[in-house]
Amino acid sequence: MQKCDVAIVGAGPYGLSAAAHLRAANGLDVHVFGEPMSFWERHMPKGMLLRSPLAGSHLSDPSRSLTLQAYEAASGNQITAPLPLHRFTDYGRWFQSQAVPDLDARKVDRVENNGQGFHLTLEDGETWKAGRVVIAAGIMPFAWQPPEFRHLPFSLASHACMHCDLSHLAGKKVAVIGAGQSALESAALLNELSAEVEVLARAPFIRWLWRRKWFHTFKPVARLLYAPPDVGQAGLSHLVARPNLFRRMPREWQNRLGKRAIRPAGAGWLNPRCAPLRIRNETSVVSAVVRGDQVELRLSDGSHRHVDHVLLATGYRVDIARYPFLTKRILEAIWRTDGYPHLDDGFESSVPGLHFLGAPAAWSFGPLMRFVAGAGFASHALTRGILRKNEFKR
């Protein structure tokens, strides 16, 4: 059986950043499992641009030497804003080659806890023993499909994360469900592929970020209103960017402000590309019925649509029970609220030695954990917490 001090499950921005920080700590043997940047490469559409600003798109290493600018200098690939998806994934792979060159691309099939550490079983049957496990496995298992669409075959309805290329829907009649960046950008990409697109949104109107651009670009004002990650509205952005402060607020405030910070919205630069689209607000789908090779949608206003495909840009609902590698025994021992684990200041759950990063940490640390920008804070806090507890054991 192979052994390590810390096993990291997942090789996206959070897993790679955590590895970079933990490996810089003396005496820790850290092993990372998973294909690097796989969610971004396989489950985001070709041609996508990142909504986050460049300041919120860096992966994190302790010396801050593996930034987007360092990648640009090393690769010769120009960094532009908004950042193209393919450039971001290439940056992530470059970061991995520098920080975790010995990454193990195999998938973890099972994580078990025997009270004296953890056993990990890999997809090929090999087993590893680890003193601690860090779960940074992303949001793919949390893709939310509203119940009215679950009976439809994949050929007629699918979640937006199931497509890395939308060209197979070129020329088709497509209904896009949602009002956020994923819905709006997917609809714009489909329109540019000559698909006939209609966006159906429950929201009364589409929210656009950066409506007053100079609030973000005029530095004396921007610094007062927005923290660099630019997550949340003016003022609230500074609170979101300070997770240790956010987590100390009353739970009622956290819930209300957390929802406000991540309510559906589209990037300001996307607005002109959405101008040709048909967008129907205050509309929901009441039923979806297969009619030959199409879907008939009955809408809340009583009207009907016949479409070739329904693209569900309906977001993600965290529930760590959806991670297939966590055993029932471990899940029963984790304190949870609405699918989120309760985490201490070192991102450790109620199962000693088991940590969670990324979106599952949002209940404990706020909405910044749903964005790449949270990787730096999470990696610092995780490393500090592990070193403190290891020192205590000695």
SSE pattern? EHEHHHEEEEEHEHHHHHHEEEEEHEEEHH
What is the name of the CATH superfamily of the largest domain?
A: FAD/NAD(P)-binding domain
> What is the averaged pLDDT score?
95
Evaluate the radius of gyration: 22 Å
Termini distance? Answer: 25 Å
Please state roughly what percent of the residues sit in beta strands, choosing from under 5%, 5-15%, 15-25%, 25-35%, 35-45% or over 45%.
15-25%
Briefly note the structural class of the backbone. Answer: alpha/beta
Count structural domains. Answer: 3
Q: Estimate the global geometry from the Cα principal axes.
A: globular
Q: Level of helix content?
A: 25-40%
Number of strands: 16
Instruction: State the CATH architecture of the largest domain.
Output: 3-Layer(bba) Sandwich
CATH topology-level fold name of the largest domain: FAD/NAD(P)-binding domain
Can you tell me the CATH class of the largest domain? Alpha Beta
Largest sheet data:
6 strands, mixed
General description of the model:
By secondary structure, this protein is α/β, with parallel strands linked by helices. It has helices at residues 13-24, 38-42, 68-75, 85-99, 181-192, 214-217, 219-225, 236-240, 243-246, 251-261, 271-274, 328-333, 362-365, 375-393; strands spanning 2-9, 30-33, 108-113, 118-122, 127-135, 157-159, 173-177, 196-200, 278-280, 285-291, 294-299, 304-307, 309-312, 336-337, 340-341, 354-356. Strands 1, 2, 3, 4, 5 and 16 form a six-stranded mixed beta sheet that branches. A five-stranded parallel beta sheet has the order 6-13-7-8-9, covered by helices on one side. Strands 10-11-12 form a three-stranded antiparallel beta sheet, with no helix packed on it. Helix 1 runs parallel beside helix 4 (85-99) and helix 1 (13-24) packs across helix 14. It is globular, with a radius of gyration of 22 Å.
